[in-house]
Every structure is written in structure tokens, then in C-alpha cells.
Design goal:
22% strand, alpha+beta, elongated, four-stranded antiparallel sheet, 7 helices
Amino acid sequence: MTSSSAKTPNHISRAQYKSSRKGERGVTIVIAAVAMVSLLAMLVLAIDVVTLYVASGQAHQAADAAALAGAAAFSSSSFTSAPSIVPQSSVCNGSSGDADMRARAIAAKFKIGGTPPSSVATSCNFTEVENPQITVTVVRTGLPTLFARIWGYRGSTVTVTAKAEAYNPSFNAGSSPSPKIDVSGVKPWLVFNCQLPCAAPNFIASNYAISNPALIGTRKTLHLTQFDTPVSGTPPPSPAPYTFYAIDPPAPVSCPSSSAISCNQIGTGPPGLYYHDNIACRGTAHFTCGQIIGPGRPIQVDTRSLGNLHARTDPGTQCLIHANAPGLNQGQDTFTITGPPVTIDGGSNNPNPLLRTATNISRSDSVVTVPVFNCPAGPTCNGTVDLQIVGFLQLGIQGVGPIPSTTPPVLPAEISAVVLNVAGCDPSNPGVAISGAGISPVPVRLIR
């Protein structure tokens, strides 16, 4: 009995032991099933987490792009250069301002969890900061979930906020020192910082502040003059044009096809003289505050005859703005001047079919930046002396001459343009230049 009892647990018979084991059959299957359900639940929960994570990243992209688009409106509306004459409400008011509408339009192009944002809210700060700022809040509600439905939760919400600002030294008068500006894609027109014979007020003051905010949003004529034209002499007709020298930077890049509208002279030289192509194409040269243009420098005044320069200015400008011929309304984009902000409407030759005949567009190939220089002291102010860049003008080109319908009439090799922005240089700053936003002297950046 003792030996038999040692062979069975708890001193029960072998028959009783076998009978109790039968009741444990199938337990492993139950445990495996519970484990599979748990693993499946964790997997589905991971899918929910990934969905929310991806949606959050998409919302960040939408908010960042929208904020940058809104900040760009500060530049193109001239608000950074002339905040005293450009109504804040027309730029940003939380609903119908230029910056508000641009931000919402860009945000709507993004998909968050497969659909556009549920809402986009904008607000601007003009008074508590040196640079105008826009804040964009993007919300996507009802994101689909799987595991959360077990508890009756039908969706999730992602909310993301981004902030951007536009900077311009003209807007920061009084800060010392003010950063320099580094702009690429500048057109080869070196504009005098005065109206000849340089007795009229400068466009840019002796420091980095704009001298006359009222010139923002006005039409001006750019008049090509020869390098040996004296500064003094017979005053030009009233209103005096913005006189400029042709300069010859290195060969440009990103040229349109020679078969494009008015672009048949692309790449025709003569070799080493790239004035025409630097008008029609995107230039490679960078222009910075304080840069010297003159003999022996990387960039010099083009000393060819005025006739040669005239013959290259008109077709180069027509190619740039996609105009069929000289004059207004030749298929190029148009600028409506009703006081700042200036608005741009797409022309029938706009290379983007979606922008043709569209109203209030936000970019145009007719918007360019040109350098401005001060004449050195003394009687000589031409291509035989060093000319220093003191600022930049951002212009909207309406057309190239001849344009007899304007007052005064625009002549051949003269350019009709709208002043969109002025950015002056701070002479006290020897530091490294900051890069502008593409071809604009007004940088735009994300700050949150």
C-alpha cells in the first residue's frame, strides 16, 4: 500500500488521477486564443497610434506651409516696407486679409488622414514684435480609429500651430546693427539711389530705412542710361524716371526655351556678355549689401554702346514677363494699383495654365529685385568708378517700351514697373549677409 500510494498524487488511485486530467483538456487552446486576442488588440492599437502620428506630421506640414504663405503676403503687399500706409486689416484680419486667404488656400491643398483640414484659423501680430508675424492653427477632426471603437470612441482630433514672420531692415529702423541682405536671381539693372541729376530725394535714406514710404505701390519708369552719362546735366522729364546702368553678371541658369514667347535670343551672346540672358533667365550671382560693382570686380557695368544695350533690354524683358510684344496687355501678368497692397492678375501667357486669367495671384515672373547704388562723392558717377550697393527695390514689371499710353510715355529700353518693396542696407553692420526668400529682398521664415 505504501508503494502504491507513492505513485499517485495526494494518495489517490490511478483511476482517479486519470479522471481529473480529463477535465484539463483544451486549456492550452483557451490560453492561446486569449493571447491572440490580446496581440490583435495591441496590433490594432498600434495602427491607431500610427494613424494619429502620421496625421500629426501631415498637419505640421500643412500648418508650416500655410504660415509661410501668409508671411509672404507681408512682403508682396509692401507691408514690411510701408506699414504706415498699408492698412493692417487689408493684410491680415483673421478672415479676409491677403495673408489669411493665402494661408487657408495653401492649407486646403494638404490631406490629413486622407481629407483636407477641418478648419484653419489665422491671426497676426503687428504690434508686439519687430517683424510682422502670422500664426496658423490647423485642425483635423474625426480621424478614423479601430481599437478605440471598443470603448465607443469614434474619432480623434489633431491640432497643430505654426508661426512665421517676414523680415525687412526697413521695418526694423532703429535696431543696430541690422542684418545685411543677400539676394539671388537679381536682374542686371543697377538703379541710381536718386532721380537724376541727383538733386531729388533718395529712394533709400542714408541709413537702412526707406526714405519715402509713399512710393510703395506707385508706377515708376526705369530708364537705361550709358555708363558715361554724367550725373549732372539737363533734368529728365517729369516725373523723373529711375535711371539704371546695365551690368553684366556671370552666365545665368534656368533659362526658358528659346522657343518660348519672345525668347528667341536666349543664348545668342555675344560670348561673355550675358546682359540679355540675365534679364530673361535666373542669374547665378548673389548681390549683397555693401557689394562693390566696378572695374576689375566680378560684376561690372556693361560698357557697350547704348544702341546694343537697347537692342537687348526690350526682348530680354519681354521673354522674362511672357509678353508677345512691347507695351501693356501683351499676355503678361498685370498689376492693379489702387494703393497698397498691389494685386496681381494672371496674364494669358502665364506658364501655369491654372493662373491664366486668375485674379489676385500670389507669385509672378514679372516680380523682380534690382540693386540700388549711391553715387560716390565727386563729379564722376559711372562705370569707371566703384559703385556700392545700398539696398534693393522689388518691382512688378508692367511692360517694356515703347508704351505711348502712359504719362510720360515709356520709350524703347525703358521699363514700366510698380514699386512693391524697398529694402535698405545698414551701413554699420559688417556681419554676414542673410539670404532673401528666393528673388525677394524680404526673407520669410518659420519661427515655431
